[in-house]
Amino acid sequence: FQGEEFAWADSAYPLSPRVIPVHKKPASLRRENQIFDRLVSHIRVRSEHCMGALKGRFQCLRGLRVAINSAEDHIKALRWIKVAIILHNLVVDVEGQQSAGSFTSTHTHTQEEEDSGDSEGQDEAEQDDDEGERKWQKLIAELLEYRYQRHFEGH
Hints:
Domain DDE Tnp4: 3-89
Number of domains: 1
Region (Disordered): 101-134
Oligomer: single chain
Pfam families: DDE_Tnp_4 (PF13359)
Strand content: under 5%
Structural class: mainly alpha
Protein name: DDE Tnp4 domain-containing protein
Shape: globular
GO molecular function, one term: metal ion binding
Largest sheet: 2 strands, parallel
Distance between the termini: 33 Å
């Protein structure tokens, strides 16, 4: 990621400056969080279907159990994922769109939670929590402001 880029995620993933998940209870019960989560859910669902199709087709992506201890290791892991995406798209081009959909259901929500990892790196996650929370709150405020403006401008 560069600059302000981030990824939407489901609640199985921890909040960080680069990963913005939907809210867990009790935060998910707050009205502004419900609005935010509902409006971004379609993005998250599409992303989950995409990842489910990739992980269903390429089991090697489940958890991507590769030690990342350096920038070079990170680049190797990204190349691995990129190759899987390219191969997936080639197969879809050859076999048609239906071939992608058949793999979506093979990767369940439970498997996705397993893939999100365990509590390793907890100290780093705690350090990212504050920055991630600030980004989360900023996104919610921007979304609510946008909705407010659209409502009163009659669009």
